[in-house]
Design a protein that fits this description.
Mean pLDDT of chain A: 83
Number of strands of chain B: 2
Number of domains of chain A: 3
Radius of gyration of chain A: 25 Å
Shape of chain A: globular
CATH architecture of chain B: Orthogonal Bundle
CATH architecture of the largest domain in chain A: 3-Layer(aba) Sandwich
Helix content of chain B: over 70%
Structural class of chain A: alpha/beta
Low-confidence stretches of chain B: none
Shape of chain B: globular
Number of strands of chain A: 24
Oligomer: heterodimer
CATH superfamily of the largest domain in chain A: P-loop containing nucleotide triphosphate hydrolases
Low-confidence stretches of chain A: 1-28, 542-555
Structural class of chain B: mainly alpha
Number of domains of chain B: 1
Helix content of chain A: 25-40%
Distance between the termini of chain A: 57 Å
Distance between the termini of chain B: 65 Å
Strand order of the largest sheet of chain B: 1-2
Number of helices of chain A: 16
């Protein structure tokens, strides 16, 4: 283990981290100054120290991982390096020269390129226009399109300069971001969680591109919390926790995913324990037959012939790259959008195809959408009010009745709220606190608890642990498995393949609005799922063509 | 001059203030800012143009004063919404009322005073053409300017880098900021430009359309200009079509009234509003086109993280 504990060096002078064996593969002369040095960067947001005396060294030809949980301060650090944020103190050196980076334009002039986590693309504009906006001057003219074509070819990143961003798949959008960063020929390229939206195959393609770029002598700062890929491609790693550097790993290849996770989280991660699924499958509690819905807007995805059974006692997961119809499928199942005829969606044998969300709740289902703030709950309202919002119309069968003759029984609501907070270990919560005041993980625990408290027979959840810290995520996954084993039908829509393999009994894959048949998890591996993610099962489009998955929504 | 010729000659001046104000507001909204104060800026422009022309005797100075006054009165809106991230709807409504009030105050002493008419600019050769000459080439300078501005704005938005930046800011101000584009500065310039064009629209009313000052002479044209921009899906040439449709139905209503048709005059005056809204709703029914042209950041305050 070649790992230096740097946790105690806060406030100290800039001690350059020691040379590790992983730094030997760059093309730089042994005594040349490192490409990028970050020294003692501190940045405070209100009461929170987002970066506490963070230091980091990036060498030529190195792919350097920046590891940490959500909220560990990774994004803050790279935004400082890219000139989007200003540090409170600390300094940045490029090739040994101290620099002040006041804006992204200055960062680009210094040779720093960045690929953002949440794409900073302009959806109604074309690829070429988006790229022109990141250059110091010029418009989306023929010369620029020529340059885009050249870069695309050199690095194997095919792109149509005239395509509109809204029509592109997430993988293609990322290519736009990368080509955009490469056009200014950066010495340093920063990628913020680049693979979180890619299929395994797309990720592999990206790794090949990154290795080519590193071999040209560029330095790559690679933010991720996916440990396997960090081990696969990175030459060095810096681990952040609560805004501080807790470890510098000289050669991630010599680590295990578990040892890296321990550094990130500071403790061992609870592994989900699940009894094997019932041998005799229960009756299908959620039954979907041939669900077809047109896209609900120019950027929406149409659902095409989706069929699925979720039986009592099992967890079925739907994998897929974001933006392939997950949101639309969730909305169709929850009743936010009704089916186009009878006989499409059944909950516990009842045809609810044309029933709204309250009727479906009364039929015994519960739903947890993807966006916590604004969809699953109202941020400004208290937790108690948020309890009332999903339970005001549910039947008496499963719970205390909250609304009588149009009046809310606030005492009962508060009681339920307190019970949820207690039973689901929601930290920092109180019934009268606004939902917004909770951290992402705790709010998600609360929202899951609110629905689980109703003891639903059918449970549909979209991205249950998105943006949730690893500890809370493990608890949420355990609850999902427990609920299923207690006899409910659980449907999990997720982009996180690790999560899916951890909890799912059967797995289906959605791509461009089509759902593959659900198959037992034991029969599938990442490779097979990756092919399905790319559309191998699609009837309407045929084989994957890497095409525009929203194309059918446009004229 | 035959009947059709006389009719068309009156339509164009009726449409001009709408077109000027709407093209200005289009630029503002393309930058992601919703300025509901067009009516107030137009009224201020109208009164300042009138007063300056009346005192100096020079209508050209009046035009200049109208544009300057419109831009000037939009500066508090720019400061409040851009520097202090105030709510744009509330601030815009306040600007509309404030502008009308200011115009009434300035113009009080000038009600009924003789105005200075902006002379018609006969374009050599072309204005001598039969029919087309009087209809198209014998108008005041602001009529021509309204066409030039429409073309310029269209070219600026879709052909120049600055226009691309402005549209980008309107589509996603966070991304534009992350790329280092000066969101606030671009928006402030857009607001000032929109104010200047609303002021020009007012100047056309008080110097050319009816060369005098009457309180409330804008008569809701600022609100129609706002509606034109939205229903025209933020596209300059469609704004022009909408403005001319409105002008045509308006003048038609006046002629019908003069002809003593048996319809209540209130209904006839409501007709252009109704016709414009119906026509533009039908145009903007194409949701895809609407959404791809809608500035997604419209009306949202931008507070940069720093």
């Amino acid at each position: 283990m070649a790992m230096a504990d740097a946790g105690g060096q806060d406030g100290g002078t800039a001690a350059a981290p020691h040379e590790g064996p992983g730094a030997q593969n760059g093309q730089s002369a042994p005594d040349a100054p490192p490409l990028l040095e970050v020294q003692d960067i501190t940045r405070r947001f209100g009461d929170i120290l987002a970066n506490d005396s963070v230091s980091l060294t990036l060498r030529r030809g190195e792919i350097h991982a920046l590891l940490g949980e959500n909220g560990a301060g990774k994004s803050t650090l790279v935004k400082i390096i890219y000139g989007v944020l200003r540090p409170d103190s600390g300094r940045i050196l490029i090739e040994g020269r101290p620099v002040r980076i006041a804006s992204p334009a200055e960062a680009r002039a210094l040779g720093i390129g960045m690929v953002f986590q949440h794409f900073s693309l302009f959806e109604p504009l074309s690829v070429a226009e988006n790229i022109a906006l990141a250059l110091p001057q010029g418009t989306a003219d023929a010369a620029l399109k020529e340059r885009i074509a050249t870069i695309s070819e050199t690095y194997g990143l095919p792109l149509d300069p005239d395509a509109i961003i809204a029509d592109l798949s997430v993988g293609e959008r990322q290519r736009v971001e990368i080509v955009r960063a490469l056009l200014s020929d950066p010495r340093i390229l920063i990628l913020d969680e680049p693979t979180s939206v890619l299929t395994p195959q797309e990720a592999r393609q990206l790794f090949a591109t990154l290795k080519t770029l590193a071999a040209e002598g560029r330095g790559i700062l690679y933010i991720s919390h996916r440990l396997e890929e960090v081990r696969e491609i990175c030459d060095a790693a810096t681990v952040l926790r609560h805004g501080r550097v807790v470890a510098e790993v000289a050669d991630p290849r010599r680590e295990t995913a578990a040892s890296l996770a321990r550094l990130m989280v500071g403790e061992d991660i609870h592994a989900v324990k699940a009894a094997p699924p019932p041998e005799e499958p229960g009756p299908p509690l959620l039954h979907v037959r041939d669900l077809t819905l047109p896209a609900d807007g120019p950027f929406g995805v149409a659902l095409y012939g989706v069929s699925l059974d979720v039986r009592a006692g099992e967890v079925v997961a739907i994998a897929g790259v974001a933006g392939n119809g997950q949101r639309e499928l969730f909305r169709a199942l929850s009743g936010e959008r009704l089916a186009q005829g009878h006989g499409v969606i059944h909950i516990e044998g009842r045809d609810v195809s044309l029933c709204g969300i309250n009727a479906r709740r009364r039929a015994g289902a519960a739903f947890v959408p993807e966006e916590r703030l604004g969809h699953a709950c109202v941020p400004e309202m208290s937790l108690t009010d948020n309890v009332v919002l999903t339970r005001h119309a549910a039947s008496e069968k499963t719970q205390e009745r909250l609304v009588r003759h149009g009046l809310i029984n606030m005492d009962a609501a508060r009681r339920i709220c307190a019970r949820i907070i207690g039973e689901h270990d929601v930290r920092g919560a109180a019934p009268e606190k606004p939902a917004r005041a909770l951290s992402g993980g705790n709010l998600q625990k609360f929202i899951m608890g609110r629905e689980l408290d109703r003891q639903p027979r059918v449970f549909v959840v979209n991205q249950p642990t998105w943006g949730v810290d690893a500890g809370a995520a493990a608890i949420i996954r355990q609850r999902l498995v427990d609920l299923a084993r207690a006899g409910a039908a659980v449907l999990v829509i997720s982009q996180d393949l690790d999560e899916i393999f951890e909890i799912a009994d059967r797995i289906a894959v959605i791509s461009r609005g089509e759902l593959s048949p659900a198959r037992p998890a034991a029969e599938l591996d990442r490779e097979a799922i990756g092919l399905l993610m790319a559309g191998a099962h699609e009837k309407r489009h045929g084989r994957a063509d890497n095409g525009t998955h929203a194309a059918e929504a446009r004229p | 001059m035959n009947g059709l010729e006389a009719f068309l000659v009156t339509v164009i001046p009726a449409a001009t203030p709408l077109l000027l104000a709407a093209v200005g507001e289009l630029v503002v909204e393309r930058a992601g800012v919703l300025n509901l104060g067009v009516e107030g800026m137009m009224a201020t422009g109208a009164v300042c143009a009138f007063v300056v022309a009346h005192i100096s005797g020079n209508p050209w100075l009046g035009v200049l004063a109208g544009a300057l006054a419109g831009a000037l009165i939009s500066t508090p809106f720019a400061a409040l919404t851009q520097k202090l991230a105030a709510n744009q709807v509330a601030t815009g409504l306040a600007l509309a009322l404030f502008g009308l009030g200011v115009a009434g105050l300035i113009g009080e002493a000038y009600v009924g005073q003789p105005g200075v008419r902006l002379p018609a600019l006969n374009i050599p050769v072309l204005s001598a053409l039969p029919f087309l000459g009087p209809v198209l080439f014998s108008h005041d300078v602001l009529v021509y300017a309204s066409f030039v501005f429409t073309a310029l704005v269209s070219w600026f938005l879709f052909r120049t880098r600055a226009g691309l930046m402005l549209r980008a800011v309107g589509v996603n101000h966070d991304a534009a900021h992350a790329l280092g584009h000066p969101v606030v500065r671009i928006r402030v310039f857009a607001i000032l430009f929109g104010g200047a064009l609303a002021g020009l629209a007012g100047a056309h009313l008080s110097l050319a359309y009816t060369p005098q000052w009457v309180e409330n002479m804008t008569a809701g044209r600022g609100w129609i200009a706002l509606a034109l921009v939205v229903f025209a899906t933020w596209r300059p040439w469609r704004v022009l079509a909408g403005a001319y449709l409105f002008g045509t139905v308006w003048i038609l209503g006046l002629h019908l009234q003069a002809a003593g048709i048996g319809l209540p005059s209130q209904l006839l005056s409501a007709l252009p509003y109704l016709a414009t809204v119906v026509a533009l709703v039908i145009i903007s029914r194409n949701r895809v086109l609407t959404l791809t042209n809608t500035p997604a950041s419209l009306g949202k305050p931008f507070v940069p993280e720093r």
